[in-house]
Amino acid sequence: MAIKYSELELAINTMVTEFHKAADDAPTMNTTQFQTFVSKQMPLIAKTVETEEGLSQVLQQMGIKNGENISFTDFWKLINKQAVEVFNNTDKQEDVKCSCLLQ
Q1: What is the C-alpha separation between 22 and 35, in angstroms, rounded?
Q2: Cβ distance 31 to 49 under 8 Å?
Q3: pLDDT at residue 89 in the model
Q4: CA dihedral over 35, 51, 66, 77, signed as positive or negative
Q5: How big is the CA angle at 71 (ends 55 and 11), to the nearest 5 degrees?
Q6: N or C: which end of the chain has fewer CB within 10 A?
Q7: Sign of the C-alpha dihedral, residues 23, 24, 26, 30?
Q8: CB 62 within 8 A of CB 72
């Protein structure tokens, strides 16, 4: 019997798959690959990484030093930041409360 994955599990699989596809199946990607990946897959922050200053800011938020490649773990830090921003900026049902520590 085939396993039926939830939408959340499929979304996680998509994130991992798309990251590694952008990294040419390597465990990390360089900043050029990262900029291309973000521009295609994350339009909310794509404008930010178009400039060197914006790219440096995003890399710093992920803990990437100048010249270092970006791992999926580093990318996950960006996902966490985006999750907080999207959650805080979207309309929520009155009965939905979040007391988790996303920050």
Answers
A1: 10
A2: no
A3: 78
A4: negative
A5: 95
A6: N
A7: negative
A8: no
Q: Please identify which residue in the block is written with the tokens 């990484």.
A: 49
Token pair for 30: 């360089």
Three-state DSSP state, 29: strand
In contact, 81 and 94? CB cutoff 8 Å = no
* Among 59, 67, 69, residue whose Cα is nearest residue 27: 69
Q: 3-state SS of 10-31?
A: HHHHHHHHHHHHHCCCCCEECH
- What pLDDT sits at residue 92? 62
Distance CA 14, CA 11 (A): 5
Helix, strand, or coil here: 70? strand
- pLDDT per residue rounded down to tens, the chain (103 residues): 889 999 999 999 999 999 999 999 999 999 999 999 999 998 888 888 888 899 999 999 999 998 899 999 999 999 988 888 777 777 666 666 666 655 4
pLDDT of residue 95: 63
